[in-house]
Specification:
With 240 residues, the protein is an alpha+beta fold. The chain has two domains: 170 residues, 2,3-Dihydroxybiphenyl 1,2-Dioxygenase, domain 1 (Roll), CATH 3.10.180; 50 residues, no CATH class. It has four helices and 16 strands. The protein has an eight-stranded mixed β-sheet with strand order 2-3-4-1-13-16-15-14, covered by helices on one side. The protein has an eight-stranded mixed β-sheet with strand order 6-7-8-5-9-12-11-10, covered by helices on one side. β11 and β12 form a beta hairpin. α1 runs antiparallel to α2. The longest helix has 14 residues. The chain starts with a strand and ends with a strand. The mean pLDDT is 92.
C-alpha cells in the first residue's frame, strides 16, 4: 500500500478568488476545506482535489509545476482560452516560440498554465487536465513513481512521466537543467497515507525512497512537511 495523491495545493494570496477561477474553468465543485481555506472536488476521473491554503508570500518566479489543459479542436482550445480570460486569466510570455501551438496563460495569482493544441497524442486520453507538467530530474520522476505506486509511462532522454493505474492526468518531469528554486514552491502535493496503514511508517518509507523532512516553522499539526529529491515541498496528512 502506498500514499495517495490527495490534493494539488496552490498557496494563494486570495484563496477564494483563486478557487472561483479554477472552479469556473474546470467545472469542479467548490467546498470548505477541513484543513485550511477552500477546496475543489473533481467532477471527472482526475482523482485528486485542488486546495488553496492562504499565504502572505508573493510570487517571485516561475512555478516548477503547472497544469496542461487539453483541447479536442482549435475551436475548443479557443473557447477554453476565452473562458479563462473572462474568469481573470491573462496571456504571459515565458519564452515560448510564436509558432508554438499551445497557449500560455496565468491565473489571477500569476500561476502559469497551458492550453494545449488539439492532436497531442501524449495527452489524448488523459482528460481536460492532461498533465501536471513539472520541472524536475529523472531521479525525482522515479521517486514519485515509487511514492505513489504509479507506473512510469515515459522514460527517455532523462524525461519521465507517471500516471495512476486508474487513469486521469499524467505527471511529467522535463529533466535537467532545473530552474533555480527561490523560496517555497507555490504548488505542492498533499499525500494521504494508506487508509489502513500507519502514517508514521509511511513517512519512514518515503524517507527511505529519498525524501527529507523539513521544518516550515509552523509545527506539524495535521501534516508532516517533507521534500522530494529535487527539494520540492510536499505534505503527508496525518490523523487529527
Amino acid at each position: 500500500m502506498t500514499s495517495q495523491l490527495f490534493a494539488v495545493c496552490f498557496d494563494a494570496s486570495r484563496p477564494l478568488r483563486l478557487a472561483q477561477f479554477w472552479s469556473g474553468l474546470l467545472g469542479w465543485e467548490m467546498v470548505d476545506d477541513p484543513h485550511d481555506g477552500v477546496m475543489l472536488l473533481p467532477g471527472d476521473d482526475t482523482g485528486f482535489r485542488i486546495r488553496f491554503p492562504p499565504t502572505r508570500e508573493q510570487k517571485v518566479s516561475q512555478n516548477r509545476m503547472h497544469f496542461d489543459l487539453t483541447s479536442t479542436s482549435l475551436e475548443d482550445q479557443q473557447r477554453t482560452v476565452a473562458r479563462a480570460l473572462d474568469l481573470g486569466a491573462r496571456h504571459i510570455d515565458i519564452g515560448q516560440d510564436p509558432e508554438d501551438g499551445h497557449v500560455v496563460l496565468a491565473d489571477p495569482d500569476g500561476n502559469e498554465f497551458c492550453v494545449i493544441e488539439p492532436g497531442n497524442t501524449f495527452l489524448s486520453d488523459c482528460g481536460f487536465i492532461g498533465a501536471l507538467a513539472c520541472d524536475g530530474s529523472q531521479e525525482v520522476g522515479y521517486f514519485w513513481s515509487k511514492a505513489l505506486g504509479w507506473p512510469l509511462v515515459w522514460d527517455q532522454d532523462q524525461e519521465t512521466a507517471i500516471r495512476s493505474p486508474h487513469g486521469g492526468p499524467k505527471i511529467t518531469w522535463g529533466g535537467p537543467p532545473l530552474m533555480p528554486k527561490t523560496g517555497k514552491n507555490r504548488l505542492h502535493f498533499d499525500l494521504a497515507p494508506p487508509v489502513h496503514g500507519d502514517w508514521q511508517a509511511e513517512v519512514e518509507r518515503l524517507l527511505s525512497l529519498g525524501a527529507t523532512r523539513i521544518d516550515t516553522g509552523q509545527g506539524e499539526g495535521s501534516r508532516v512537511a517533507m521534500a522530494d529529491p529535487d527539494g520540492n515541498e510536499f505534505c503527508v496528512l496525518t490523523p487529527r
